[in-house]
Amino acid sequence: MKLFERFRYRRLAILALVAVAGIAGALWMLGSIPGPGSGEEIVAVYIPRGAPFGQVVNLLDQNGLLRSRLLFRIMAHVGNAPQRIKAGEYEFTKAMPPGEILRKLVDGDYRKRPIAVPEGFTVRKIAARLAMEGLVEEKEFLRLAGDRKLLAEMNIPAASAEGFLFPETYTFYKGLEAETIIREMANQFHARVTKEMIEKARERGFTLLEWVTLASIIEKETGLKSEMPLVAAVFRNRLKRKMPLQSDPTVIYGIENFDGNLTRRHLERQNPYNSYLNRGLPPGPICSPGMDALQAALNPAPVNYLYFVSRNDGTHHFSETLPEHSRAVRKYQINRKSSGN
Known about the structure:
This protein is mainly α.
């Protein structure tokens, strides 16, 4: 009798395994069936952080990605997927099988966006670009960029993250918190700026904040790498002689809602960034300087220039004396304006 029962239990176990294998095989086959639409139809679906599984199913169904909500639910629960789905923005085709959709959701194979932050971008421009991509809320990003506690945690010795969000091409995805993005950009700054560079800045008489501030002005004054050491020399020479820097970009930075037309009235209006009225460096950076500008601030050209003026072709004329500078201004600016060119 015992032998018969043992044989029966073994038989039942085998039948159960066969049944499970059959169900698994059937689910695998059903999970491989293409979705209800075309393979050329790409759909972006954002899964919010903390979204319940029912909401995930609704989002997929509303976007025309599921043939059967019930089948998708069964497949998900058999694979214990509901607890492992990761938040983020995903791209699917309408022909994608449900099994492939689940795999992407569980693996976190979400859409990653390359975001270029060029040299010379301000915090406001960075926030606007990220907001345009749907990655952050602009006001929240700007608020965090001035959060004293966060700045201290990121070792930023300033009242704002301006200048310390390193210009680079980043890979972000929808669902990242604004704070995480700011931290990543600040970490990139600290990764690229070495202790040796900071020490060299101190030897030149600059704190970290002062060095980055000077580099940001250089960045805004010229887009030519070859000119940056010359521009750096002009400002270094002016600082040594306690002359005003007289940098238009600093004045522009201090103007709320600047319309693109810098006037004499702007130059005569007092604000902390008006380097025509205030001597020394402004209170902080005016943009995110790149490595070329940071290096130029540490290694100015060995020249005695005190002035420079645009040649209107992307380059500048540099002068040691005011009379020479005045002649250059007449040649490249005043005469050009009077001739209508």
